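Sequence design from tokenized structure. All designs in this work follow the same two-part layout: the structure record, then the generated sequence. An example of the structure record is given first.
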């Protein structure tokens, strides 16, 4: 029986640590430790028995850098990264607005390609693009409540799955969005019954679904056994407020 696989990936250490309400909010990976961790993440994903066919990535620098390492480990370097605005960081002030009032400005696909991320599929159009005003259809917008993020994650996940059309996929995003999408796939009776909790740097989560089933099974959550050094133990965890109980 054929199974579809979804891998959720959180990137490694960034060059400039993100501090809530302070920033910076679009740091690249740390050129030494973050890159080493990114390579470890990429090798882990590529070594899975059923590796992904394609990578969907947030448009922030640290996510695209990690996606680039993953597709190279997979040997897929042409049109292999689909930049999806629906995977962007939680657009809440504490994660997007610096003390001087400067707001996060995610790069465009062309800007990312010009930065040498040539693995990006320029023909892919975001299935849940950022909106300039509050939306009722689940589009990301400044500024989102936690409840709205859950709606955004559901819409993004459904549209990505529809676009992927059965492909095995890797999603490189940020803890708030990844947790919310994982919660949607897990579909617990209540948040209190969810197995989803804090997500450390470099954590990899895997869901699978049988071809004749409508439900997803979480087979691995935020695993860091592939990470180098002390990060193998799961460091620098973050969680949505509603999932901090774990």
């Amino acid at each position: 029986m054929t199974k579809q696989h979804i891998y959720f990936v959180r990137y490694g250490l960034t060059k400039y640590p993100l501090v809530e309400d302070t920033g910076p909010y679009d740091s690249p990976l740390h050129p030494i430790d973050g890159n080493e961790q990114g390579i470890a993440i990429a090798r882990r994903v590529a070594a899975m028995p059923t590796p992904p066919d394609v990578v969907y990535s947030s448009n922030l620098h640290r996510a695209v850098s990690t996606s680039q390492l993953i597709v190279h480990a997979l040997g897929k370097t042409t049109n292999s990264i689909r930049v999806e605005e629906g995977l962007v960081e939680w657009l809440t002030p504490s994660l997007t607005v610096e003390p001087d009032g400067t707001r996060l400005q995610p790069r465009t696909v062309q800007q990312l390609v010009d930065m040498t991320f040539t693995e990006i599929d320029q023909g892919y159009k975001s299935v849940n693009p950022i909106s300039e005003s509050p939306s009722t259809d689940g589009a990301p917008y400044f500024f989102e409540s936690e409840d709205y993020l859950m709606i955004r994650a559901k819409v993004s996940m459904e549209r990505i799955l529809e676009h992927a059309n059965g492909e095995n996929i890797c999603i490189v995003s940020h803890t708030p969005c990844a947790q919310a999408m994982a919660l949607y796939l897990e579909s617990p009776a209540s948040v209190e019954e969810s197995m989803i909790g804090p997500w450390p740097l470099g954590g990899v989560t895997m869901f699978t679904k049988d071809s004749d089933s409508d439900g997803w099974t979480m087979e691995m959550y935020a695993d860091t056994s592939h990470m180098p050094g002390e990060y193998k133990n799961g460091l620098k965890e973050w969680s949505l407020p509603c999932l901090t109980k774990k």
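The first helix runs from residue 33 to 46. We note this feature because it recurs in several other targets discussed in the main text.
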